[in-house]
Structure formats: C-alpha cells, structure tokens
Amino acid sequence: MLAPFQAALAAAKHVVVLTGAGVSAESGIPTFRGAQGLWRSFDPMELATPQAFVRNPGLVWEFYSWRREVAAACRPNRAHYAIAALERQLRQQGRRLTLITQNVDRFHHQAGSQAVIELHGSIWDVCVAGRGGRKAGPCWEDRRQPLCPGLAGRGAPDAHSAPDIPEQDLPHDEHGRLLRPGVVWFNEQLDPAVLEAADVATASCDLFITAGTSAVVYPAAGFAHIAAAQGAAVAEFNLEATDATGLCQFAFQGKAGELLPAAFGVEAEVEQLMAQAAAGGQGG
Ligand code: BJW
C-alpha cells in the first residue's frame, strides 16, 4: 500500500490535506469523539452552539478558556511537521499543497504550514457576540491567558454545576461589547470565503489526503466525496476505519505522527524541524 501511495504522491500536482483532531492528539490535545473525546464528558449542545452561548456565556467561556490553557501547554507534533515539510518540498518542485484543517489550535501554522484554510476558526481568536450569540463582524487574535480576570484559575467546567461568572466578568471589547470565541459552532454557518477556498482546493486536487478526522462533521466530511467524484485519489490516515474509508484507494491505520513522516518521505526534515523547535527556533 505504501509504494502505490507514494507513486500517487509523486505524480500529484495539487495535494489537499484535510486534518482533524486526531492530528493534534499526539500533542496532548483531546479529540472530540472516541473513548477519551471531549464530547464524552461535555455536551456539545451546551457548549458549542450559539444557543448555548446565549443561555450561559459563562459556562461556554469557562470551557474555551480551559481549552486555551491546555493548548498553550502543548506543541506541534511530527504529523504537523510532516505536512509542513511536504508543502515546502512540493512548492520547491513547482507543485502545491493546500491544507484544510478543522483544528482550532493553530499548530499547523506553528509547525510552518503556509497554505492553511481554517474551517472552524481558531481558539485563539475572539469576536464580538451579536444577535443570537452569532459573530458580529471580524474576529481577531488575542492569546492572553486568561483573557480577563473573571476566567482566571477556573479549570474545566463542572458538568454538574453551572458556573457563577457574571456576564460583566467575561471578556468584553473596549466598547463594552461581550466577546465570544472565534470558532465555528454547530448550527453555525462557516465563513463563506473560507468554505469557498476549501471547495475550490478540493475540486482542483489530484490527491486528497484525510488525516485524524472521524469524517462525521459537515461540510468537512463531504470533501473526500467531492474529491473522489472529480477523479482525485483519496488516502486516509487514522487510528481506525471511518465513514470515509470506503472511498479511499489508500487507507493507513495508526498514529498520524508515526505514519505521515514515512508516507510522505520527509522523516529527516521532520526530525530537523522538531530539533529546531526544541532549540527554540521556528515552530516554537
Ligand atoms: C487519530 C489519532 C492519531 C485519534 N492519529 N488519527 C449534513 C448532514 C448532516 C448534518 C449536517 C450537514 N450539514 C451540516 C450539518 C450539521 C452539523 C453536522 O455536521 N453535524 C454532524 C455531527 C451530523 N454541521 C454544522 O453545524 C456546521 N455548520 C454548517 O454546516 O452550517 C450550515 C448549517 C447550519 C445549520 C444546519 C444545517 C447546516 C458547523 C460544524 C462546526 C463543528 N464545530 C466543532 C467545534 C469547533 C470549535 C471547538 O473546537 O470547540 O468542530 S465540533 C468538532 O467536530 C470540532 C471538529 O473540528 C469537528 C470534527 O471533529 P474531528 O476533527 O473529526 O475529531 P473527532 O474527535 O471526531 O475524530 C478524531 C479522529 O482522529 C478519530 O477518527 C480518531 O480515530 C482519530 N485519531 N488519534 C491518527 N494519533
């Protein structure tokens, strides 16, 4: 299976890589589904919808502030570096790689990826909360931790008791408007320009690689189908089979951080990038 995949990679002019939470799992970021997944302990409808934010912005902010703390203590892993190294290699050869990520941790940027489409926003962004908890205007990055004194030292939300953070103690902008996390929640439209960029990339690739995603959340889950329908080869890297496995020519089971450097033939580059990052260079 590896040799035919590498032949497809060698022949591809435009590679699209779609990543999900499994790619950051080896960094220490919890996935959403599966035995240790966040949605096992936390109800997404109470924490990751605009309606939940309207009902209880303190609970939602407590959840996201805790996840920012977790992410701040983690670093990109070999899977992130492998994708960045492949992008660089393809660019040097006059080919290209577009990365579509569902992840909100920005580890792909930190690892050096350049052509990154963030489908579900970023946990480091904040935006003004408008009607119905939706975004009112553009988001901006704010990496302060905690974002405001009211969110200091709270840890993970307790599923059995609602937090007692008054709304005035939550993050606000300089005009006193309540802020919300800059991520995309369930029941919420993706940014149309972002979705368009992902659609265009998917429709024009000749190799589509999906890594570390359960392939159940739309619209991302539809991309592999679109790529396959327009003739691209599809490859999957995951711990286990998913809803997308059936349409893949190549399916590799195992950890992304172990599989991707070898499959992409970039092991030496990955070790070099990891060493640079450990020494405090680019990739942090
Ligand atoms: C490893 C590994 C290792 C682990 N190595 N692998 C069409 C049909 C049906 C429903 C819909 C539809 N269109 C829209 C919907 C509704 C909804 C949806 O898809 N629901 C489904 C659950 C059924 N979609 C939406 O609401 C989207 N909006 C939208 O479409 O707008 C239009 C619309 C609005 C209203 C109604 C209808 C249409 C928005 C989706 C937003 C998702 N948001 C979240 C939270 C983001 C913010 C945050 O971080 O808190 O995004 S939910 C969560 O799931 C997060 C993820 O990005 C997303 C996907 O999860 P992912 O990345 O796949 O992670 P896991 O945990 O599921 O899987 C991890 C995988 O890794 C597993 O397979 C492991 O095996 C593997 N793994 N370790 C390799 N080391």
From TrEMBL:
GO MF assignments: histone deacetylase activity, NAD-dependent; NAD+ binding; protein-glutaryllysine deglutarylase activity; protein-malonyllysine demalonylase activity; protein-succinyllysine desuccinylase activity
Entries under SUPFAM superfamilies matching the protein: DHS-like NAD/FAD-binding domain (SSF52467)
Alphabetical list of PROSITE patterns matching this protein: SIRTUIN
Pfam families reported in the protein's UniProt record: SIR2
Binding of NAD(+), residues: 20-39, 102-105, 212-214, 238-240, 256
Coiled-coil ranges from the UniProt annotation: none
Chain positions recorded as substrate binding sites: Y64, R67
InterPro entries attached to this UniProt entry: DHS-like_NAD/FAD-binding_dom, NAD-dep_sirtuin_deacylases, Sirtuin, Sirtuin_cat_small_dom_sf, Sirtuin_class_III, Ssirtuin_cat_dom
Chain ranges of the Deacetylase sirtuin-type domain: 1-276
Function of the protein: NAD-dependent lysine demalonylase, desuccinylase and deglutarylase that specifically removes malonyl, succinyl and glutaryl groups on target proteins. Has weak NAD-dependent protein deacetylase activity; however this activity may not be physiologically relevant in vivo.
Family note: Belongs to the sirtuin family. Class III subfamily.
Entry domain remark: In contrast to class I sirtuins, class III sirtuins have only weak deacetylase activity. Difference in substrate specificity is probably due to a larger hydrophobic pocket with 2 residues (Tyr-64 and Arg-67) that bind to malonylated and succinylated substrates and define the specificity.
Protein name: NAD-dependent protein deacylase
Source organism of the structure: Chlorella sorokiniana (Freshwater green alga)
